[in-house]
Predict the structure.
Amino acid sequence: MRKSTRAATPSLERRAVMRALVSDRDDDLLVVPGLGSTNYDLAATGDHPLNFYLWGAMGAAAMIGLGLALAQPRKRVLVVTGDGEMLMGMGGLATVAVQQPRNLAIAVIDNERYAETGLQRTHTAYGVDLAGIATAAGFESAHTIRSERELAAAVPLLRGAPGPVFAAIKVRPDRPPFVLPEKDGVEIKNRFRRALLGAI
Amino acid sequence: MLTPPVPTPFNLHHMPPKSGSAWPDRIYDVFVRERIRQVAYVPDAGHSRLIERCQADHRMKVVVLTTEEEGIGVLAGAWLGGDRGALLMQSSGVGNCINMLSLATVCRFPLLMLVTMRGEWGEFNPWQIPMGHGTPPILEQAGVLVYRLSAPEAAEETVEAAARIVFNGDRAAAVLISQRVIGAKSFK
C-alpha cells in the first residue's frame, strides 16, 4: 500500500477558500456544494436562493452541476465539493468531459480527509491526483491549487473561463463550526427554481 | 460534445417480439410531446433505437453515463434549470441507483426512468437473474412508482401515463420494459 504523500501542511483555510470562490456573486452564478463540509462552508458565506444545498446524494454534486449547466447555458454553474464526495463520483468527470459544458466549473476543496466521519485519510492523501484525472478525462483546464497566489489566479478561471474547468484546492484539515443551511429538499429545490425560472 | 461512434446492436432475433417493433419510435414520440430535453443513459441493446432517435434530435441533450446513478443527479440538475429529462438503463443498473434515488424522493424531483428488463423472460445469462428478479420490489421500496410494459402496442400509452405522473406530480416513476417486448438477447 502507498504511504501518505502530504509533504507539508497546506496554508489555505477552507472557509476562506469558499468565500473567495463565491465572492461578489450575482444571479448569473448557480452554486452546487457537495454534502458535508462544503455544504456548511457555502452556508457560512451567507444564504442564497441559487445555492442547491445537498445533505445526501454523495457523488452526485458534479452531475447535478452538469444537468444544470446543460439546461442553463447562459449561467455560470460552480460545483464546490469535497475530495471524498468527488472520489465517490469520479466517473462523472468522464461524463462531464464528453459533454464539454463551457459554463461548468468544478472546485474540490481538498483536505485529503473524510472530515465528517473523523478525518480519515482519503485517496488524495495517498497521492491520487484529481486534477490529473480531470485533465486525462478531457477537461478544458485543470489545476491543483496550494497557495493564496494560485487561488487568486484560479478564481477567475472557475468563475468565467470556458469550461469545463477543474481545480483541486488543497486546504488544512480543519473542522470549522457547523453552519447549517435549509434541510428540506423540496424547499431548497422550489426556492432555487423560483429564483432562477420565476416559477416552481 | 464529442461525437461517439455508433454502437452495433446485439442480435435480438433469437426470441423476437410478438409485433410492433416500432415501439421505441412511439416512446420517442412521447418524449417529443412531453418536451423531454435531457436524456441520460447507460445503454442497453433494447434502448439502442430510442437512443439513436434522441441523438438525432437537436432539441435533446443526450448524456452517456459511466454508471446509472449519475443520471439521477444529471436530471435533478436539469429540472433545477428548467429542463425535463428521462433516464434509460437496463435492470442491472437499478441496483446502482438505490442510494441516489433519495435525491429524487427527498426533493421530489420528477424522475422518469425507462428500464429494459434482463433476467426474467427467457434469460440466457444466469448472472442477470438476481437483479432482474429484484428490480420491481427494490424500486418500490425506494419510493419509485413502477409500471409494467409487457406488450409493444402499449408502449406509447404506458410511457405517456408515467410521464404525466412524473411531471404533474413531482414523482419518480419507472417503466419496466419486459424482455417479451425487447426480445431476449441471443448469444448465438
